[in-house]
Design brief:
It contains five helices and no strands. With about 70 residues, it is mostly helical.
């Protein structure tokens, strides 16, 4: 799985919209959308915040996993 696939899955499992996640991270919904489509990557501080928010490690988010 890619970073974007993991992020989308975690967000959806938590019942959170892209807008709600964007608000929590103080970014635009478009930024979250680009992350989920693997067009861009968030800055390091946002990756740490995402890991904390979803209760996963940064290692889990960043390492590519085979599907």
């Amino acid at each position: 799985m890619t970073f974007g696939q993991k992020l989308q899955s975690l967000r959806q499992k938590s019942g959170m919209s892209q807008d709600a996640l964007a608000e929590k991270l103080n970014v635009s919904r478009q930024a979250v959308s680009r992350w989920e489509r693997d067009e861009t990557m968030p800055e390091a501080d946002k990756i740490v915040a995402l890991a904390d928010l979803f209760g996963v490690t940064t290692d889990y988010l960043l390492r590519q996993q085979k599907t």
